[in-house]
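From the methods appendix. Each design record in this collection lists the tokenized structure first, followed by the designed amino acid sequence. Records were kept in a plain field format so they could be parsed without special tools. The example shown here is representative of the layout used throughout.

RECORD:
FOLD TOKENS (617 positions):
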């Protein structure tokens, strides 16, 4: 069977599995809808958390970013992994002991204020919609290539699937669906990684092959008796084409630090991950499920750098100085000229890859800019309908001319999906990767949409607007809110602000600048009060959102960046502003009520600790 047939079969079977699980585990109460009844086994919850956490940004975006950014792309790996450790060890057990299953619920009760709850609801919706934009974008990328449909139609199909099992099953349906999705996505990520590791390095373990010597077809071109590591070869290829060395970074140390910090603390403030620790029966189970989740996440995260490097080597070796058509190649006069394979033209038709033949030789020059690593044209390609250039390249509506000789545009989000095709793996592997990308995107999208619906139905309606609402009507409100959220998510998926990984990084920055300080202060600082935390959240997220909007949507020049900090890292500064404002305002206003301070004390100190101390004394 061809790639499209395999994709239809594998994706169809996985979708049928997800829908079947959603029907089997549909929510019958608000407890089922919000926290799956609190009865999920820790290992199953660990798998579901892994799927919830490993979004399209992890499956598609992170390896793609590492492939193009090299060393600089490691910020995503360090920030997201470190952030989950921070969440699991520092926050999750305390939040689980507090007993409030949404972040706005925690903020509202801890800071004894419905206005604080409202600010948290707005922040949760804002963060979740920014995050879900990256997931729906990932869905569109997969569908646009492998089902050969327009990217907009691909997003609409994904919306329909998420709508079905998120609205019907709630957290109960989502949890067990995510267990299945984890199995699909990790299998889909590891199988091609193992295949390509064997091809390039002769080692079946990608993590070891990543630091090993080249073998196979590319390795055979190296002089006899000489051994070259994969990373040394990649550095050499990059330098030959005018890019920065793959293992060197171009970002400043401060920017790298801020991006890593924003991703790390943003992780600890993400409401859709925090809520997972309420789906297990006990506080101890929350800790155990955190351990399992970290183990399941580590399988993918330790493999992503290898996937990025493998994809970069294959792309540079296959595309650079290749002729677009066999006819032009034959006319070149070379004995055995390289010719672009079919995968290139299929991705070109999807609108996620473009080639402009600037010198009219029918050959693709993939070049950097003055050795500084510019990887693509300025802007994204806008294709002229059904028109091709003299040598067959897809025509583009705008010139896409950067101030260099680069003739190739590659959307970095395609690298994980295109990698098996570039490496000439079997068609079933390519279809499997498509199913894995969809599983990663849809699992996280469902969790985020549940956060939005819960924030509206439980925190806004139940806690503030209509306290007497019946459980039946609250469940109906949650489902209506989820349906509206799906539509909003679809729009953002069709019109994303950036690549998947970068878009998700914005969401982490917003979470870092809003929720993280409020949660930390709520658990560890008894003196933190409502006035301080409300002011801190508004200032933190206001500054961060304004910075992102200015530089990503209003054409802000990179010359005006604050201390050279990129929009992806500004959340760290927003977090610092939040902490400073919260502390200052808290200490110049009235301290929290005594019962709130006692509540904070009880969260941090295990039951019986006082009695044990007295006996030992």
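DESIGN:
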């Amino acid at each position: 069977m061809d790639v499209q047939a395999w994709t239809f079969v594998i994706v169809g079977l996985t979708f049928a599995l997800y829908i079947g699980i959603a029907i089997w585990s549909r929510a019958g109460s608000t407890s089922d809808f919000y926290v799956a009844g609190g009865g999920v086994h820790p290992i199953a919850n660990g798998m579901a958390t892994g799927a919830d956490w490993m979004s399209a940004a992890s499956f598609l975006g992170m390896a793609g970013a590492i492939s193009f950014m090299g060393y600089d792309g490691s910020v995503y790996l360090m920030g997201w992994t470190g952030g989950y450790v921070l969440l699991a060890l520092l926050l999750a057990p305390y939040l689980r002991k507090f007993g409030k299953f949404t972040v706005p619920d925690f903020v509202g009760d801890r800071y004894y204020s419905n206005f604080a709850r409202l600010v948290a609801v707005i922040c949760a919706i804002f963060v979740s919609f920014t995050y879900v934009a990256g997931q729906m974008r990932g869905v569109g990328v997969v569908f646009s290539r492998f089902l050969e449909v327009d990217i907009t139609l691909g997003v609409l199909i994904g919306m329909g699937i998420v709508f079905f099992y998120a609205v019907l099953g709630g957290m109960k349906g989502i949890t067990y669906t995510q267990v299945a999705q984890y199995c699909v996505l990790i299998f889909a990520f590891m199988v091609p990684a193992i295949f390509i590791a064997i091809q390039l390095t002769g080692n079946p373990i990608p993590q070891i092959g990543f630091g090993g010597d080249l073998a196979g077809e590319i390795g055979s071109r190296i002089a006899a008796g000489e051994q070259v590591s994969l990373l040394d070869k990649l550095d050499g290829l990059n330098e030959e084409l005018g890019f920065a060395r793959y293992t060197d970074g171009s970002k400043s140390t401060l920017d790298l630090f801020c991006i890593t910090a924003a991703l790390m603390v943003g992780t600890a403030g993400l409401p859709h991950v925090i809520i997972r620790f309420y789906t297990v029966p006990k506080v101890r189970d929350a800790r155990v499920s955190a351990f399992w989740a970290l183990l399941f996440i580590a399988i993918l995260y330790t493999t992503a750098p290898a996937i990025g490097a493998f994809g970069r080597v294959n792309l540079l070796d296959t595309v650079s100085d290749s002729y677009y058509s066999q006819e032009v190649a034959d006319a070149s006069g070379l004995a055995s000229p390289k010719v672009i394979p079919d995968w290139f033209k299929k991705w070109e038709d999807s609108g996620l890859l473009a080639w402009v033949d600037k010198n009219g030789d029918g050959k693709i020059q993939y070049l950097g800019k003055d050795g500084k690593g510019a990887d693509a044209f300025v802007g994204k390609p806008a294709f002229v309908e059904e028109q091709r250039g003299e040598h067959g390249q897809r025509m583009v509506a705008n010139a896409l001319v950067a101030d260099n000789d680069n003739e190739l545009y590659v959307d970095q989000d395609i690298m994980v999906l295109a990698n098996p095709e570039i490496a000439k793996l079997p068609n079933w592997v390519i279809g499997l990767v498509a199913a894995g990308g969809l599983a990663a995107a849809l699992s996280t999208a469902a969790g985020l949409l549940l956060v939005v619906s819960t924030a509206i139905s439980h925190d806004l309606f139940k806690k503030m607007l209509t306290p007497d609402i019946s459980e039946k009507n609250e469940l109906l409100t949650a489902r209506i809110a989820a349906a509206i959220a799906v539509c909003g998510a679809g729009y953002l998926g069709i019109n994303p602000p950036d690549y998947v990984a970068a878009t998700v990084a914005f969401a982490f920055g917003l979470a870092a600048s809003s929720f993280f300080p409020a949660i930390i202060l709520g658990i560890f600082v008894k003196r933190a009060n409502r006035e301080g935390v409300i002011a801190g959240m508004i200032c933190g997220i206001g500054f961060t959102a304004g910075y992102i909007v200015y530089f990503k949507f209003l054409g802000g020049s990179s010359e005006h960046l604050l201390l050279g900090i990129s929009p992806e890292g500004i959340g760290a500064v927003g977090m610092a502003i939040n902490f400073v404002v919260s502390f200052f305002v808290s200490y110049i206003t009235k301290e929290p009520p005594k019962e709130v301070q006692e509540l904070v004390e009880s969260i941090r100190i295990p039951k019986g600790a006082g009695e044990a101390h007295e006996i030992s004394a």
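APPENDIX NOTE: Residues 3-236+246-306+425-495 form a domain with the Hydantoin permease fold (CATH 1.10.4160).
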